[in-house]
Amino acid sequence: MRARIITITTVIVLIFSLLMAFPAMAVGDVVYTNTRMIADNLEFRNTISWHGTLGRTESFALTMTGEGAARPMIMKGDTLFGTTSISNMVSLAESRGLNVLAAMNTDFFFTQHGGVPMGIVIEDGVFKSSAGGRNAVIFGYDGSVDIIPPPIVWISLTNNGGNAEYNNAGQQVILSHFNKPRTERGGMVLYSEIFSTVSTRTTTPGWSVRFRILSGTPSVSGTMLLEVTETLISEDAMPIGEGYMVLTAAEMSDLGHEFEKFAVGDVVTLSTSVTDQRLLNARYATGGGYILVSDGVVADASNWSSALQTRAPRTAFGIRADGSVISIVVDGRAPNHSVGMTLSELAEEMLRQGAVYAVNFDGGGSSAMSLRIPGERETTVISRPSDGSERRCATYLLFVTDVSPGGSVRNLGLRNDGVIVLAESEVDLIPIATDAGFMPVGVPDDIQVTAMIPGAIINELNYIAGSVAGPDRLRLYSPSTGAIGEGEVFVITRPTSISATRVGSTTPLTSIRLSPEEVLELNVTATYYRRLVTAQINSFEFEVTGNIGQMIEPGVFAAGETVAQSGTITISAGGRSLEINVEIAGFEDMHNHWARDYAEFLASVGITTGVTPTQYGPELPMLRGDFILMLHRAAGSPEAVELSGFEDVPEDAYFAEAMAWAREVGVVGGTGGGTFEPLMPVTRASAFTFTYRALGVLGIDFETGTAEDLEDFADAGSVPDFAIIPTATLIRLGIVEGANGMLISDSTLTRAQMAKVLAMVLQM
Predict the structure, then answer these.
(1) pLDDT, tens digit, for every residue of 462-483?
(2) Helix 624-634 vs helix 684-697: angle between axes, to the nearest 10 degrees?
């Protein structure tokens, strides 16, 4: 199972990335990749796949391609007890002077025991926690990487004597639990100060022996010399303290006889040894879950937990045949973004990525990857944790560089690396520059760019895509500094969707109602498997059907002069199209009329249809019944429980339902004698009153007006008493302005005036 990292030149890796065809991913077909170098030996790849039934899956991979500036390390934090988010872990590492390039979560942890890792933990050669029967990933001092079955670190405590009263010399205790949660029948556990600065965190009665460290530090193979300072039985957790260790077991474990082997004053030798000699070389180690791939074959899944065979976010780690290592994070539990993978699919994916050995790390809401994107000073969580925020986890795999930031330009790249461009469209490339420590520095002004896909045209930093689909690897070079680098543009010939909005609006258009000679300016966008595509308006083709008008330039449509016409604007690119249904609706008698926009608005929302399809009749009187019908439509045409009860409103009248609703909600009360006179013209006073009563029904908040609001109108005294407050309120709301300083309350409301009143009410 042993594999060692070997040197692979960046050039070979990049050529392989460019020439590799899009194979099937474990969930669907690969439809997008973006590969960029984070360091000279650390490659990042973003992959999107699509399955016709399941949908979209997005993953992120980090590959160490050989010896170079980047190296891996495992980090838990200050103590084993407690969890932290990936962003906080990176910040902690940076506070310790580490130059962090990327990070991802690793081991599972005990959620009920403070986030203690389930598997082994070795940090910079310091043995921090035993394996707990879990598989392990080991990073050696010599650059080797191993995935091994559950290792065991045997721990023995041999009493050398010291307390003359008890004479315990020669007594020995053997255990394998180090800095793990103590359970009722789980045997003895040895704790060091690395476990917790507070205590052993135990919650049940148990035996404890406290040792002072005389010499040595915890390692997987070696000795330490300890002195017993305290023995006790307690229901409480025992403080550990700096420079001390605690041996403990729960009372229910029936191990009291083992603790009788120690007395205060005894000097004890702690010895550790390993079952797998590869641990002797371990600089870092972390625990893992099931083995996914072994000897180039997907591992036997018969003993895998069924709970892990659901589709979910995943994290895995693997070793390729050439010795390079690959870490992968798969987003999931977000159908519109990524469906995730089952454990079997994850194994297949690791095999597809070239892993000959692979292990499962903690997934679900724990899965996360952080990356210092070239050109940025801070790392960013580039995956989408399924919890909606970063989960606090136990251990993390960090990729760091020992090269300190500072100095001149060494590396070039693109800030918009991986941008998706529609064939024959253009994009402005945004270069970045970094120093030897991969921190951003000033960008040279003489960068030259060379494309690898035939047909692409580059004018300085402007890239015009050709007609060949796929990733175009670009070479960047600065003659003045000698800095080089690469970037990638992903060219597509067929988007997966096209959408359009009217300029100034964000609402997608599928249909629109235009007035004669009205100009429609369109913003058109395309997406490719839910990623935005860079394209210009002239990258799309426009076709108009029907006698509705014409495109006067790409993206600009001018409606025709004839009303009551319908047709479509079809927008297409690469065989994908969008149809916008267009209706040239308008009223011939409203051309240049002051109320045109109000009338058109009411027609567009279904409040009025005009006296004919092409005539609005702006100066015609508004009938009482028709005005109530308009209010009813404005309210959404709700059903009434009973008939209106008006003698002059027949049950089959077109406004009967509206009249019933209006009386039910208190908009109307009748004219006396049980009638309403629906076919009589409505006066302005009555119309204002009906509108005022409907404001609350329509859900409009307003401040009631007073007679003082009418004082500026010369004929305020002629307003009927019932209409004073309604008229004043509409004036305060700006719905009514009067005419030439007059309210003319007893005049008939025209259809044009009705349009303004109701349009303004609806727009509130």
Answers:
(1) 999 999 999 999 999 999 999 9
(2) 20
